[in-house]
Design brief:
The complex is a heterodimer. Helices cover 40% and strands 12% of the residues of chain A. By secondary structure, chain A is an alpha/beta fold. Chain A has two domains: 174 residues, Periplasmic binding protein-like II (D-Maltodextrin-Binding Protein, domain 2), CATH 3.40.190; 211 residues, D-Maltodextrin-Binding Protein, domain 2 (3-Layer(aba) Sandwich), CATH 3.40.190. In chain A, strands 1, 2, 3, 4, 5, 6, 7, 8, 9 and 10 form a ten-stranded mixed beta sheet that branches. Chain A is globular, with a radius of gyration of 26 Å. Chain B is 69% helix and 0% strand. The radius of gyration of chain B is 24 Å and the shape is flat. Classes of the chains: A alpha/beta, B mainly alpha. Chains A and B meet through helix 1, helix 3, helix 4 and helix 18 of A and helix 1, helix 10, helix 12 and helix 13 of B. Chain A: Keywords: Signal, Transport.
Chain lengths: 481, 308
């Protein structure tokens, strides 16, 4: 054996050199090379395809020889529905070359292309790697979809696309002012999800007021079943039933004030009443034990196994938990229970809104092609194809006749019918992602439902977060129109 | 030969150093540059904003919380991991009692088996480890709480990752579990090169195990321990801590910011909030912390080198 460090007086020792460079290399690793890939080597973008002639069959004036590129988020809905729609595009424009691809890594694939100025013509900007819509809009990266909305619909030339959509879809695509930047293709119903069979076994109906809710939970508890569970690790699932409840109790203005980040919006008595109602679920022990440590899948599994009766969720739960929901579960969704008969809006007031945001980049080479592809997807036939393949409603108003609906979907359609025009659409989760998920969701609601904050403390904390966001000049602010 | 030596070294190092400059140093410089802009990361346009991002960072509570957690990681993880690894390695290689007919210096019974077992976690990728522990920490049906129920502790059912006062420690435990094995192997290799006569001499002098460890093993292993320390600290500040926090924790980063770390915050700002410039600013802070950590460890660890 030699020595651990042989001191070579004649210069830099070999060992020393290796040791030093190794240390330097180690230091370098965690640093910031994360962002290095996105160098701003922005070119002048790509040349636009010349617009084609506008005709009755081609109202958007698509250049029938131009290439069209479509990138889809390959998530819970799969890609078949989009491929089917692409086939129709190819049939309509046989001379055009269509490049279709599906990926889960929307942002890693497309962020560099936005930076270089050559994005594709149509993108389903969805999933965990969704690119921030507010920033895309703020930086003028998106095309206004108004021409698409004002074009005649695919099925009926006498009807504009705009008039074939479900309530709230167009508004959701707007950020401030008239332009519509996003076309939400799926339609999600949020609310309280449960097993009709389990409810029947308790001799109960879905509770319309909070006293009834507590009674049902008490009954369930006697049978060894918890009243509620939720995605404890992602407490921003709680708003799916809490926000429409606030809307029902205090009126839609309360929700709008919250979205607009108005001072003291959260101090409204309706908010307090609803927070206290939810907190009571915790205090009375109606929440499944261990819930704050469960993620969405784990909580849905416990709920599907019958450990808990109710769960706040969206209509994707039917597909997502399909393998754990028993055959005879009889999945159903309801609008949230209110406080009592003095609520401002009737029972049935529900949160429903668009999902799967499709965008056409402003720097796309063939934006007309991208919009035309969307127009095709918003036809009755394509919408039916979507609904029957992925068990979700689409933005197209209708499109459920003549196809067999799953229990959850059927119940969703019924809930929408009951709601009529009483559909609310809170926007915090798409306007201010960090505020909604990390601060209000994890920082306050999750803490309150775990019993670590009282409703009053939670409200104070949330109001603080909202005031901070309102003052933050680094984020763009939006208002309900 | 002295004059040709450097040319010789440069000849060999030119290509690796060039790659290093291109893929490590240059991105660093770029990132520092971006931290003075308002780049969103979603469009090619941005303008210079001077020190705005840095001013904002100094008033950002979440940044300070992340920094606090990252520092705690860098402090606690190396101490725990390296102490455990040293203990295990010592027991495996030197800590055993003499068995009839065997060598004087040997590990505890079954040491070769332990060596393999300790190394197991190293074979799994950190993402898988994090997922596995996420299931174990499930308060409803996870392994840990089921075990507690099994031994009659049904009333002790912590929320683990759902409890702000436990979550950070849960995350650290996973990192300790997954990295200790590597250091056991590393230190074992180091210990194998310590001459047996030294131990025999100590034994004859009547030294206990503890004395042997502190007077012989540790001083002779000091170089390896020091490198291990730097490596572990960087791991705790960098990618590994990001992976476990991102995969396992509430939010991620919660509950109530109890587990957020600097790397996670960089990621969230750059890729969730579309504030790439601010993210690079936090990245610069992380760089400073990492460099400071390495410098402190190198300085504290400076010792007279022993020849043997």
């Amino acid at each position: 054996m030699g020595s651990t460090a042989h001191h070579d007086r004649e210069g830099v020792g070999r060992r020393e050199l290796i040791r030093r460079s190794a240390a330097l290399g180690l230091v370098a690793v965690p640093g910031m090379s994360l962002l290095s890939a996105c160098a701003s080597s922005g070119g002048d973008g790509q040349s636009k395809a010349k617009a084609g002639k506008k005709t009755a069959k081609n109202p958007l004036g698509v250049n029938d020889t131009a290439k069209m590129e479509f990138v889809l988020f390959d998530g819970g809905f799969g890609k078949e529905y989009a491929q089917d729609a692409v086939k129709i595009y190819q049939k309509d424009f046989p001379k055009a070359q269509v490049k279709f691809s599906a990926t889960q890594k929307i942002q890693s694939t497309l962020q560099p292309r936005f930076n270089q100025g050559n994005p594709p013509d149509l993108i389903d900007n969805s999933g965990a790697e969704q690119m921030d819509m507010g920033v895309l809009v703020g930086k003028n990266q998106l095309a206004d979809l108004t021409p698409l909305l004002d074009a005649p619909s695919y099925d009926d030339p006498g009807k504009k696309v705009r008039d074939t959509l479900r309530p709230g879809i167009v508004e959701m695509g707007q950020f401030d002012g008239k332009p519509v930047w996003i076309m939400y293709y799926a339609y999600t119903v949020y609310g309280v999800w449960y097993s009709q069979k389990a409810l029947d076994s308790l001799d109960a109906e879905y509770p319309k007021t909070w006293d009834e809710m507590l009674q049902v939970c008490a009954k369930a508890k006697k049978k060894g079943m918890a009243g509620w569970t939720y995605a404890g690790k992602y407490p921003y699932y709680i708003p799916f039933s809490l926000y429409p409840m606030i809307g029902k109790v205090g009126g839609v203005e309360v929700l709008n004030a919250i979205d607009n980040l108005e001072p003291n919006a959260w101090k409204h008595p309706a908010v307090k009443a609803c927070f206290e109602a939810y907190y009571e679920l915790f205090k009375k022990g109606y929440i499944l034990k261990g819930t704050p440590g469960l993620d969405h899948i784990q909580s849905q599994t416990a709920w599907a196994k019958g450990e808990a009766l109710f769960i706040p969720n969206g209509s994707w739960v039917e597909n997502e938990s399909a393998n754990v929901i028993p055959k005879d579960f009889d999945l159903a969704v309801s609008a949230p229970s209110g406080i009592d008969d003095n609520d401002k809006m009737p029972f049935g007031t529900i949160w429903a809104s668009g999902g799967e945001p499709f965008i056409v980049p402003s720097k796309a080479a063939n934006p007309e092609g991208g919009m035309e592809q969307l127009r095709i997807m918003l036809s009755e036939a394509s919408s039916k194809n979507f609904t029957s393949k992925v068990k979700s409603l689409s933005a197209y108003n209708g499109g459920t006749d003549g196809i067999e609906l799953t229990p959850g979907l059927k119940s969703g359609v019924a809930a929408l019918k009951l709601a009529g025009s009483n559909v609310v659409n809170p926007r915090l989760q798409d306007w201010y992602v960090q505020l909604e998920k990390e601060k209000i969701g994890v920082g306050a609601l999750g803490e309150m439902m775990a019993g670590r904050l009282t409703p009053a403390e939670a409200i104070k904390k949330i109001q603080g977060y909202a005031d901070e966001a309102a003052k933050d000049t680094t984020i763009k602010h939006y208002k309900h129109q | 030969m002295q004059h040709g030596k450097y040319r010789f070294i440069v000849g060999f190092l030119a290509v690796p150093l060039g790659l290093y400059a291109l893929f490590v140093v240059w991105p660093f410089i770029q990132s520092i540059y971006y931290s003075f802009t308002d780049w969103t990361g979603l469009s090619p346009e941005f303008k210079m904003v001077g020190f705005d991002n840095y001013k904002r960072m100094l008033h950002d509570d979440i940044f300070w919380k992340s920094l606090q957690h990252s520092l705690l990681f860098a402090l606690v993880l190396p101490i725990v991991t390296i102490s455990l690894a040293l203990f295990f390695a010592f027991m495996i290689n030197v800590g055993g009692r003499r068995r009839r007919g065997g060598p004087a210096i040997t590990g505890v019974r079954g040491s070769s088996f332990y060596k393999i077992v300790y190394f197991f976690p190293q074979v799994l990728s950190i993402a898988i480890v994090a997922l596995l522990f996420q299931f174990a920490y499930n308060p409803d049906s996870g392994a840990i709480n089921s075990f507690l129920r099994g031994i009659g502790l049904g009333h002790v059912q912590p929320l683990w990752l759902g409890d702000p006062s436990l979550a950070l420690w849960c995350v650290m435990a996973v990192l300790v579990w997954s990295t200790t094995g590597f250091f056991v192997v590393l230190f074992s290799a180091g210990m194998a090169s310590i001459p047996g006569e030294l131990y025999e001499a100590a034994l004859i002098d009547g030294a206990s195990r503890a004395t042997t460890f502190f007077r012989i093993t540790l001083p002779l292993l000091w170089d390896t321990v020091q490198s291990g320390w730097v490596y572990m600290g960087i791991l705790a500040l960098g990618a590994e801590s990001f992976a476990v926090v991102q995969i396992m924790t509430t939010g991620p980063g919660g509950p109530d910011y109890s587990t957020t770390v600097l790397v996670l915050y960089v990621y969230q700002k750059a890729f969730r909030d579309g504030q790439a410039a601010y993210a690079t600013t936090i990245g610069v802070a992380l760089l400073v912390v990492t460099l400071a950590f390495a410098a402190i460890v190198m300085r504290l660890g400076r010792r007279e080198r022993l020849e043997f």
